[in-house]
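Fresh eyes needed here. Kindly weigh in on this sequence plus structure tokens:
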Amino acid sequence: MSSPNSGDDQKPSEEQAEKTANSEDLSKEDVANEDLEPDDTLRGEENEPFTPEISEEVETDWQKMAQERYDQLVRLQADFDNFRRRVDREREELRGYVTGAILGEFLPVYDNLERALKYMPDTGEAKAWRMGVEMTLKGFNEVLNKFGVTPIPSVGTAFDPRVHEAVQRVDSDHPEGIIVEELLKGFQWKDRVLRASMVKVSTGQDAQDVQESGTDSPS
């Protein structure tokens, strides 16, 4: 049989449990509010944002590292510029070599046209043929000049071993070292010799003087 006061005994227990729950909720709310409040230790005077201090040693290390990276970049850029200039120079040299080799292959054709004119008569039926060869040779010269190919001066100029090839030394009334005859025309492309001129060079002594000196010599 239940006691009549059992209902009254349960009410204080329920009220006590409710107070305990409310106190726990207040404690949780206080903790949450504490988490949301800014930490005064992270702020300077007058509520300024916190700025971390960097030691001079660390700052010096950073500057040194940045300078090293900059020096490496400068050296790398210089190496690349040198490489690019070297490649451009080699490309120009190769282009000049190929162009000179191709132009040099046309020179024998020029020689044949000149020989044909030298031995072709200028009279009769051959005159028309000669005019045709002359026109062909003229057009050939125009093409060579268009590409910068020019004949090397020879007869009447001083012998130059860079552009002339002496085939024979002859006595003449010209000063010594002067070219008196051209056997094969030479050509140059810009500053490059495609083919040296084959020439005869004067010794500076007249043939007649040589004969006279030979007859006057004692027997």
